[in-house]
Amino acid sequence: MYAIYDQGDFGEEFQDDVSNEAQAFVMILVPYLSPEGIDRMIPSFKAAIKRNVRICVFAKKPIGWENRHSLRGSDAEKFKRLEHLTNTLRSTGVHVTLRDYVHMKLAVIDGRILWHGSLNILSFNPNMSTEEMTRTENVFEAIAAIGRQKLDRCQECIALKNHNLPDANIIDGGKTLGRIIEHRRMTLGMTLEELADKSGVAKRTIMRIEDGDDHDAKLSTLFQLLNALDSRMSVLPDFAVPFVKQFLETAPDMQSLQRAIRASG
Ligand SMILES: [Zn+2]
To answer: For residue range 28-42, what is the model confidence (pLDDT) as tens digits?
Structure first.
């Protein structure tokens, strides 16, 4: 499914995607930033960030950027303007990574929606250019674009991940996996005995896995359990982890389940 937009109708559609459609992350790759382009997007960025959506912007690092503080004259002014724009974005909560040699213009939303084409998403002029942007809803194309353009290498996301390492990793020594299995079992209204019977896995083993104490659970054991729970395992790229974790923690049935567990224990 795809649709083509021009400089006249792109802005509104893209702002709507960021403000309302994005659930987890928006990654934007652009060569340039302009004050007008950023002003246009800031309300949508704010709306998304309020909903815990991460916004990662990648823009071109001008040649000589590292030495900008020792420059004078028009180059110094140019760098100062860019620095001011990146600070404006950061103060809104947007991540900014400057990198060499950017020419592509694209955006990926939730690894599901891909925008790409000729239009500079954060600096286009809606009245003065003839541009085209294609919006594609296709998981494979969106994920492939993240890989090709290395959009999962946001410097600020990486810093955050290193900062909260135990938390940011959904496996975290099996704790989260155990909780998910327990959650699923309880959602199905199964007791430990019933799951042991149905899966052929010993009750003691299930308890250790649910408690996150079994760091060496065999894959075949996990598959037996998941089968008995009508569930599957899937592999997530790092960038999707915070979203899934948030989903698991805020899903309404998870909250009532946690309350029930606390009340019973
Ligand atoms: Zn980021």
So the answer is: 999 999 999 999 999
